[in-house]
Design a protein that fits this description.
5 strands, about 45% helix, alpha+beta
Length: about 190
């Protein structure tokens, strides 16, 4: 068995819906390292993975300044029974995305995972300077639920059953979320 929890021979470990312009991503889609993470904003393990990915992004930026060696893609994957506020948080981040603030809201929600009730979500939108009327209209009409459901469906197609799930260059990585473990898997994927 490999030292790294990746298996390139297993079809069930393949990312079947490849990253595209429709996704929320940081970096270039053709970067040497593409991380696709499925998660939700209420899941503690998703928060842990988010923080690890931020450290990895900072590492790549410092080692390869001015170059886009890493691309990070986020896709929603929500288990309603485990995380009752996750769907609303996903709608909030998509409403922020429609005003050009996906990543700012994404980071804010992970920073405040313990405070995802409606009142807090409106405060976060206000703190980002979003048009609150437009924001609330999108939430009340569930304008972005189709986009969220597409992400969830793409996860199911790739064998995701629980969040978080991480794919490194299209191959599923296991549930070890420390920076060191993920960096080792990235090294194995690109070398």
């Amino acid at each position: 068995m490999s030292e790294y929890p990746m298996n390139q021979d297993s079809y069930s470990n393949q990312l079947l819906v490849l990253p595209s312009q429709r996704d929320h991503y940081q970096g270039r889609l053709d970067a040497p390292v593409v991380l696709v993470k499925y998660g939700n904003y209420q899941c503690p393990q998703c928060g842990e993975l988010h923080r690890s990915i931020q450290v990895i992004q900072q590492h790549f930026a410092s080692v390869f300044p001015g170059e886009n060696w890493i691309c990070v893609v986020f896709r929603h994957f929500i288990e309603n029974t485990l995380h009752p506020h996750a769907r609303k948080a996903a709608e909030v981040v998509e409403s922020a995305a429609s005003q050009g603030q996906f990543w700012a809201m994404h980071d804010l929600l992970f920073t405040h995972q313990q405070a995802l009730e409606n009142g807090f979500l409106v405060e976060y939108a206000d703190s980002l300077g979003l048009d609150i009327s437009q924001f609330l209209q999108a939430i009340s009409t569930q304008a972005h639920i189709g986009r969220i459901n597409q992400d969830i469906e793409s996860g199911y197609q790739s064998g995701v059953t629980v969040a978080p799930a991480l794919f490194i260059n299209g191959i599923r990585y296991s549930d070890r979320w420390t920076v060191e473990q993920i960096m080792a898997a990235i090294d194995a994927a690109i070398y």
